[in-house]
């Protein structure tokens, strides 16, 4: 067993004193009737005399964050899930036995308080304690400046402590489900049905990514943790569920940085009889509605930029954006050989499996992507990098696909869905050839999905969006680890 610090030894002595008083140091049920913020909001405008006349009784519970002991009367601050509130406790109000119990309290202990709302001489809303209940003894002291630890990774390893002492972390933790709920409410109110599809599968598909591989012992087969939900959701369109969505975890065995975690949350939405334009309208509505729901405004300040999420996002073809930055018009580039020549002249690394479309995408990533600040739907992706999207009707080198970029980062990816089983089969064959040439992110052949398309999938639009990145944007968080409660971390040595 590890050695205890001096503070921890003192707290264990107090633990024994509480036991000697016949009190369970780790608590029982407590009936909370009120929360700190609600009390403050409802009573802040009242005078001291009005509160005395009102004689409002409340019951709160929370963690002690500050104590000022003053002989026979003391002040302490408790933090509940919504905020914090000051408590005044006096031996004259609670009696000597209870006051002695209070004197065993440390910062970090969890307590319950029944009392009357009052206002101090300085105008601070306070609860005058009439009944003090010890609930939980904290055996470890809270760090005084946890947010400023030199080893910032400890904040994410010990998220529970981060949530106690870091108000911003707690704010983000409550904002995330609010954003998700706004998306669900919008889709539910527009006729979409939320569904669940398998996380384990035997086929790698739905996105270009490296998978996590596991093993099913009973069937003695390797399986993948899903990298996307796309193909199963489109099977549901075949089955007649004409508007579906899923919010869930995906897993990609790739690098970690400020925008990537191996385990992440996305939403995918599919709508029969829609198309790329319909998905643009939907994506715009979901993002704007989430911003308004969370912040009461379409305006956000993020990483040094003021960004407007007001509906009416810019829409631009990938080739046109490349031309704006480089002067090269890839509509007029007719061969892979010509594209390779341009790539070499513009410091683009050409991989063995690259053809015309890969080079177009490489130009976009190098010269355009990070320059996009305001919300922009970039459409017209090359067919080589879009195996599940319909071809563009006016130029079959490109597809009916868009990505939403904000502040140099991709937030959503959408298609007019490919529903031609013959074309889809050929695209899968192309992916297998890329895999043979070394593209580890190429899709497998999903023959069952091709068979599903042969039964007939309605014309449809589909969209996938990263929930974590959206939360980052709307909460002003610089790293994905701030918005995932328990991000993937390297174990301690």
Molecular structure report:
The protein is 34% helix and 26% strand. The chain has 493 residues and is of the alpha+beta class. An eight-stranded mixed beta sheet has the order 6-10-11-20-19-18-15-14, with helices on both faces. A hairpin with a 2-residue loop joins strand 18 (401-406) and strand 19. Helix 8 (167-189) packs across helix 16 (467-475), helix 11 (318-326) packs across helix 13 and helix 12 (336-345) packs parallel to helix 13 (356-367). Mean pLDDT is 94; it is low at 146-150.
Overall residue-averaged pLDDT value: 94
Number of domains: 2
User: Which term fits the overall shape?
Assistant: elongated
- Given the structure, what is the number of helices? 16
CATH class of the largest domain, please? Alpha Beta
CATH topology of the largest domain: BirA Bifunctional Protein, domain 2
How much of the sequence is in beta strands? 25-35%
> Compute the gyration radius: what is it?
29 Å
Oligomer: single chain
CATH arch. level architecture of the largest domain:
2-Layer Sandwich
Q: What structural category do the secondary elements indicate?
A: alpha+beta
Helix content estimate: 25-40%
Q: State the total count of DSSP E strands.
A: 20
Largest sheet: 8 strands, mixed
Poorly predicted spans:
146-150
Adjacency order of strands in the biggest sheet: 6-10-11-20-19-18-15-14
First CA to last CA: what distance?
18 Å
Assign the CATH superfamily of the largest domain.
Answer: Bira Bifunctional Protein, Domain 2
């Amino acid at each position: 067993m590890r050695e205890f610090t001096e503070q921890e030894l003192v707290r264990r002595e107090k633990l024994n004193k509480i036991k000697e008083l016949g009190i369970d140091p780790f608590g029982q049920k407590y009936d909370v009737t009120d929360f700190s913020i609600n009390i403050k909001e409802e009573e802040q405008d009242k005078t001291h005399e009005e509160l005395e006349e009102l004689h409002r009784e409340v019951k709160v519970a929370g963690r002690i964050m500050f104590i000022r002991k003053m002989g026979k009367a003391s002040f302490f601050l408790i933090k509940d899930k919504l905020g914090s509130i000051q408590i005044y406790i006096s031996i004259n109000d609670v009696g000597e036995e209870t006051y002695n119990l209070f004197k065993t309290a440390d910062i970090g202990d969890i307590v319950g308080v029944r009392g009357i709302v009052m206002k101090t001489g300085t105008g601070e809303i306070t609860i005058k304690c009439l009944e003090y209940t010890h609930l939980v003894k904290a055996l470890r002291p809270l760090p005084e400046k946890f947010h400023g630890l030199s080893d910032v990774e400890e904040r994410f390893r010990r998220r529970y402590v981060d949530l106690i002492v870091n108000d911003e972390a707690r704010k983000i933790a409550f904002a995330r489900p609010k954003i998700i709920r706004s998306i669900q409410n919008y889709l539910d109110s527009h006729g979409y049905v939320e569904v669940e599809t398998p996380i384990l599968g035997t086929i790698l598909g739905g996105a270009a990514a490296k998978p996590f591989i596991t093993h099913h012992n009973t069937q003695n087969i390797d399986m993948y943790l899903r990298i996307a939900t796309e193909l199963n959701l489109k099977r549901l369109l075949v089955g007649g569920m004409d508007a579906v969505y899923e919010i869930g975890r995906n897993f990609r065995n790739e690098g970690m940085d400020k925008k990537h975690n191996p385990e992440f949350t996305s939403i995918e939405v599919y709508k029969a009889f829609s198309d790329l334009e319909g998905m643009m309208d939907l994506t715009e509505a979901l993002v704007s509605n989430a911003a308004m729901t969370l912040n009461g405004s379409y305006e956000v300040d993020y990483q040094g930029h003021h960004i407007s999420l007001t509906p009416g996002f810019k829409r631009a073809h990938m080739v046109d954006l490349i031309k704006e930055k480089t002067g090269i018009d890839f509509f007029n580039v007719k061969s892979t050989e010509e594209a390779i020549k341009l790539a070499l002249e513009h410091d683009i690394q050409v991989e063995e499996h690259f053809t015309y479309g890969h080079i177009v995408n490489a130009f976009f990533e190098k010269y355009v992507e990070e320059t996009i600040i305001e919300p922009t739907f970039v459409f017209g992706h090359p067919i080589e990098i879009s195996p599940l999207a319909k071809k563009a009707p006016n130029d079959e080198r490109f597809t009916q696909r868009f990505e939403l970029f904000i502040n140099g980062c991709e937030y959503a990816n959408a298609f007019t869905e490919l529903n031609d089983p013959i074309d889809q089969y050929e695209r899968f064959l192309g992916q297998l050839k890329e895999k043979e040439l070394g593209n580890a992110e190429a899709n497998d052949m999903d023959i069952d999905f091709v068979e599903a398309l042969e039964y007939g999938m309605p014309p449809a639009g589909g969209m996938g969006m990263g929930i974590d990145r959206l939360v980052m944007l709307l909460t002003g968080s610089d790293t994905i680890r701030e918005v995932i409660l328990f991000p993937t971390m390297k174990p301690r040595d």
